[in-house]
Design brief:
This protein is 41% helix and 19% strand. By secondary structure, the chain is an alpha/beta fold. The chain has 2 domains: 154 residues, ATPase, nucleotide binding domain (Nucleotidyltransferase, domain 5, 2-Layer Sandwich), CATH 3.30.420; 165 residues, ATPase, nucleotide binding domain (Nucleotidyltransferase, domain 5, 2-Layer Sandwich). Strands 3-2-1-4-5 form a 5-stranded mixed beta sheet, with helices on both faces. It has a 5-stranded mixed beta sheet with strand order 8-7-6-9-10, sandwiched between helices. Helix 5 crosses helix 6. The two termini are 22 Å apart. It binds 5'-O-[(R)-(carboxyoxy)(hydroxy)phosphoryl]adenosine and zinc ion. Zinc ion binds next to helix 4.
Length: 347
């Protein structure tokens, strides 16, 4: 029990929002199995995530997924050295499902448990890929709930350089997509619509780039989309042109701030993660930027940009190896500042 030998694995559970993600990470062999159940179809009819429906669906899905990944990985509970679960930030009812199930499985199997911060999971997801970055690095985390630029000296050593003062990038994508009549979640749909947009018809502002600092503000872009739609008419080509102008403004703003942060900190490695990290225009733009700045950029595979259990299993493994343990009292936090985590030595 509690033996953190590299020849054992960690079960990771993610239930912070609208995906149930479960995975097994092995100390030597890496990711052994992962499975995901997306609730998109359940929430789509409401145009957004309904917290109560999310919690109820996690309750239904989580244990069958645990069994599925253990079968896939061909392991039994005796191969596990711990259980990791997302304890925040996120929807409290949804988090409580993963926390209660994860903590209780660890109790029943007599192995340690660890509470994982969802955004630390996103940040470390590129370490699941070949050629992972080394520390120190700069991280741009762009999800549905957060936009963060972070100076990262190691696992748990995070200095927040900038964040969104209003809507997160993913949230801005989703709200603008809704205005354009696209379904939930809007990010990928808006990106697809932008493909057929005219590149020169509209130019939206690059918020907060005309002053020093690394904070972001994206809610004005949504307003800009509404006023343009009212002025120009709601025909399909105009909608595509707005989608293009919106995405361009977001990508450009993120790239300007990343360039500024790279120069300010002298870091040469950039990690980009979180749901919006799956956006092709953003990836292309940041790849160009780091080539120009003489650095490297590291992304998770597309499936691990959005929420998943693999990033939680990996983060849990790193923290358990460093001796982090969760007491029996089950804890979940809707809000949880990333820069309050305990520090862990480098992977
Ligand atoms: O990380 P994530 O799965 O969940 C949170 O932690 O919030 O991020 C979800 C967000 C949603 O807002 C979704 O619209 C956005 O990521 N997203 C995208 C793309 N794929 C997902 N936004 C723009 N382009 C994409 N390809
Ligand atoms: Zn997420």
């Amino acid at each position: 029990m509690g033996d953190m030998g590299n020849d054992r694995c960690v079960l990771g559970i993610e239930t912070s929002c609208d995906e149930t993600g479960v995975a097994i990470y092995h100390g030597q062999r890496g990711l052994l199995a992962h499975a995901l159940h997306s609730q998109v179809a359940l929430h789509a009819v409401y145009g957004g995530v309904v917290p109560e429906i999310a919690s109820r669906d996690h309750v239904r899905r989580v244990l069958p997924l645990v069994r599925e990944v253990m079968t896939q990985a061909d392991i039994t509970p005796s191969d596990l050295c711990g259980v990791a679960y997302t304890a925040g930030p996120g929807l409290i009812g949804a988090l409580l499902v993963g926390a209660a199930v994860g903590r209780s499985l660890a109790f029943g199997w007599d192995v340690p448990a660890v509470a994982v911060h969802h955004m630390e999971g996103h940040l470390l997801a590129p370490f699941l890929e070949p050629n992972p970055p080394s520390f120190p690095l700069l991280a741009l985390l762009v999800s549905g709930g957060h936009t963060l630029l972070i100076d990262v000296e190691g696992v748990g050593r995070y200095r927040i350089l900038g964040e969104s003062l209003d809507d997160a990038v993913g949230e801005a994508f989703d709200k603008t997509a809704k205005l354009l009549g696209l379904g939930y979640p809007g990010g990928p749909a808006l990106a697809a619509l932008a493909e057929s947009g005219n590149r020169s018809r509209f130019v939206f502002p690059r918020p907060m780039t005309d002053r020093p600092g690394l904070d972001f503000s994206f809610s004005g872009l949504k307003t800009c989309a509404v006023t343009t739609l009212r002025r120009e008419g709601n025909d399909p080509q105009t909608r595509a042109d707005i989608a293009y102008a919106f995405q361009e403004a977001v990508v450009d703003t993120l790239a300007i701030k990343c360039q500024r942060a790279l120069r300010q900190t002298g870091r040469r490695r950039l990690v980009v993660a979180g749901g919006v990290g799956a956006n092709h225009a953003l990836r292309a733009r940041l790849t160009d930027l780091v080539a120009q700045e003489g650095g490297s950029v590291h992304y998770p595979r597309l499936a691990f940009c959005t929420d998943n259990g693999a990033m939680i299993a990996l983060t849990g493994w790193l923290r358990l190896r460093a001796g982090v343990r969760e007491p029996l009292c089950i804890r979940a936090l809707a809000r949880w500042p990333l820069d309050t985590l305990s520090t862990v030595s480098e992977p």
